[in-house]
Write a structure and sequence with these properties.
The radius of gyration is 24 Å and the shape is globular. It is built from two helices and four strands, in the order E-H-E-E-H-E. The protein has a four-stranded antiparallel beta sheet. The protein starts with a strand and ends in a 43-residue tail after the last strand. The chain is an alpha+beta fold. The chain has a domain of 92 residues: Ribosomal protein S6/Translation elongation factor EF1B (Alpha-Beta Plaits), CATH 3.30.70.60. Helices cover 21% and strands 35% of the residues.
Length: 136
C-alpha cells in the first residue's frame, strides 16, 4: 500500500473536541479504504509565515497513513467540507515510518573498518587497476 502524509492547519479557535471528532472521522475514512493511520503528530499552535483569513496562528496536525486507491481524494474531500481547516497539503512518502518511542541508535562503523581517514594504506574513493600507471 502507498503511504501518504497530510498536513492540516486547523483554526486555533476551533474547540479541541471538534478537532478530535474530525480526526476520528478521517481515521474511519482511511479504514474504509483498507488503510490505517501509521502516525499522528500534533504540533499544537504555531505562528504562520503569513496571515490566513486575518489569523496569525494555526494548530498543526500531521497524519501519515496508508490506504488503497482513492483514499487521498476522499480524505481531501472531507477536509474541504470541514469549516475548521485553514489549509491542508497531502504528499506521497517513500520512507519507512518509525515509532516515536524507538529512537535510532548512533550508527557504528562496521566491524573490521577503522573510523580514521585511511585504511590499509589506501585512500578511500580511489581505485586504479594494478597493471596501469596512475593518471596524471
Amino acid at each position: 500500500m502507498t503511504k501518504y502524509e497530510t498536513a492540516i492547519l486547523f483554526d486555533p479557535e476551533l474547540p479541541e473536541d471538534r478537532r478530535k471528532e474530525f480526526l476520528t472521522k478521517i481515521e474511519g475514512i482511511i479504514a474504509s479504504f483498507e488503510g490505517e493511520i501509521l502516525k499522528q503528530d500534533d504540533w499544537g499552535i504555531r505562528k504562520l509565515a503569513y496571515p490566513i483569513r486575518k489569523t496569525h496562528n494555526a494548530y498543526y496536525t500531521f497524519l501519515i497513513y496508508s490506504g488503497e486507491r482513492g483514499v487521498v481524494e476522499e480524505v481531501e474531500r472531507n477536509i474541504k467540507i470541514f469549516d475548521g481547516v485553514m489549509r491542508h497539503l497531502t504528499s506521497r512518502v517513500d520512507f519507512e515510518v518509525k515509532p516515536a518511542a524507538a529512537e535510532p541508535a548512533a550508527e557504528e562503523a562496521p566491524s573490521g573498518e577503522e573510523t580514521g581517514g585511511e585504511s590499509n594504506g589506501e585512500i578511500p574513493g580511489t581505485s586504479a587497476p594494478a597493471d596501469e600507471p596512475p593518471s596524471t
